[in-house]
């Protein structure tokens, strides 16, 4: 599969990716190699990765527990400490083998250790393949607030190996599918159309769908690496989605949502706001709502959930001058950034979601 050239690194696929990885390690003459995994990728993915690695460099494995709760500064301190104790230096490379938590956290730890060491992302979940590992955003959560602390720094390369998906539970596959749906909605109507009826989707061509999703994200990031303009398009569904995700993480009476599950709700809500602001037709809105609801189970909201979710919007890192910023659809396949919506309209979007 054709490599994708990002800003200053390559996104490579399957066996060819491992060949290029070994060349990269040799050319850069790294002093040692650290591999960051969680308990799941240690069990299901690490042996496959090591079987392709051809090097005589020292390899050290750093394992953390799986889950969003590990994506915090305390875990970073543990990683920095292990790197230090095991002889990590400026010529060390960190390989992040895992889902979005591992690539976000590992990228941040590498970017700040000794003022920055090289890192390589090998995403093992669909969500990380099409979103988290691409674009150079690295960071950790602050309490229940998503991605509040972080940096933008690119990996040396990203390696996409779809074989890792064979170990993934169905709910994790759906979580990644949410970001693929988003890419179609914001940038490619034809791509979106391929997902309108999943019974007709040929999963034999899933590699090609992943490739196109990464292409869309990369094309947007290349235009605006530091998110001052069009890269904000990628936030569609995330303004409300992140607030919902944070609220459910912090509320023990609620079932914690996967990232994609929260973003799926956010896309429906923000599509409703797009329709009410006359950017989207009612027909388009109904198509989006019905397509997403056919994939994702409904998330229950009570009346008393809305106020704390609205309060969390204030902390969204996309906000400017105290105003909540939305990226809204301007028809399917197009986007309008820097849009606002009042609380009354946001509450109406929740009311409509429940119908």
Automatic annotation (TrEMBL):
EC top class, as a word: lyase
UniProt domain 3-dehydroquinate synthase N-terminal: residue ranges: 62-174
Pfam families, per database record: DHQ_synthase (PF01761), DHQS_C (PF24621)
Cofactor annotation: Co(2+); NAD(+); Zn(2+)
InterPro entries reported in the protein's UniProt record: Dehydroquinate_synthase, DHQ_synth_AroB, DHQ_synth_fam, DHQS/DOIS_N, DHQS_C
SUPFAM superfamilies (alphabetical): Dehydroquinate synthase-like (SSF56796)
GO terms for cellular component: cytoplasm
EC number in record: 4.2.3.4
Record-annotated 3-dehydroquinate synthase C-terminal domain positions: 176-319
Protein name from the UniProt record: 3-dehydroquinate synthase
Species this chain originates from: Flavobacterium silvisoli
Gene: aroB
